[in-house]
Amino acid sequence: MSRPVHFVHLTDLHLSHPDHRDPELLSDTLGTLKTVKAMVRAVRPRPAFILISGDLTNRGDAKSYRLLAETMDGIDIPIVYALGNHDSRPGFYEGMLGRDCNLEAPYCHDTVIDDLHVVVLDSRVPGRIGGALSSDQFDFLQSALDRHTGLRKIIAIHHPPALDEDATLAWECLDWADSRRLAGLLKGRDVAGVFSGHVHYDRVTFWHGMPVVVGTGLHTANDILYADGLRMVSGASFGLCTLRESGLTVSFVPLPSDRHELQTLDLKTLRALI
Ligand SMILES: [Fe+2]
Question: What is the predicted pLDDT for the residue at 273?
Fold first, then answer.
């Protein structure tokens, strides 16, 4: 890699078509996405790509994916999409890709942009909030890594890897066993960063020698000082990323917010949901 590569990390768009009058939508995500789109278009140097790490829609319906495609139309920067627990594979394939077969297949794929190998995994498990990876996806990852051994890697996965074996955090991350297996596969593969979302706050972890970057996203912000459950406040951010020979930099761009309370779930309600 001779020149720096600049890219943008978005996550957790939670777009929902206005026709749905979605009662579970807690903010104007369409308006936020339009604002962020305008901000990203003005970024200089021009980003080589935009990485969006899942929860593209709030309900996983094809109509909302079509709205997403329309909203992002004309941005003239390659966009790499991943799916999250709020997404649905059939809805995404139909609404975004116009596909009408093999609709339940995990959306894992890879691409090379400016000598950077971007690998996308699909950690969604239908009916679950936490994430997992099937054996097929590990096989896909292995062959993708073997295909471009000389290139630096960016991994996109909606659920961040589990940091430890604390079962109370199970909803927040990838399954523990899969996290351990993922770490083993990525070891020594020149991974510059793992990009995730899901927990709705900005967080950077150094995990098995790799930075794991989590973004707040565009729907709600998790009040991490609230310890008695889950308190969601208004707030959004995205990441401006630069990868140099020397390493990765991510600058978080917070959108203006008064951080007023949107929803609070106590621990009992939260456990019932999980
Ligand atoms: Fe989300």
Answer: 75
Q: In whole angstroms, what is the distance from residue 214 CA to residue 53 CA?
A: 9
53 Cα: distance to centroid of ligand 1 (angstroms): 10
Distance from residue 200's CA to the centre of ligand 1 (Å):
6
Q: Where does 5-273 sit in CATH, by number?
A: 3.60.21.10
pLDDT tens column, 87-114:
999 999 999 999 999 999 999 999 999 9
Q: Dmax of the chain from CA atoms?
A: 52
Centre of ligand 1 to C-alpha 11, Å, is 8
Report CA dihedral (190, 50, 181, 147) to the nearest 10 degrees: -50
For residue 169, what pLDDT is reported?
Answer: 60
User: Which of these, 33, 80, 90, 31, lies nearest to 59 by C-alpha position?
Assistant: 90
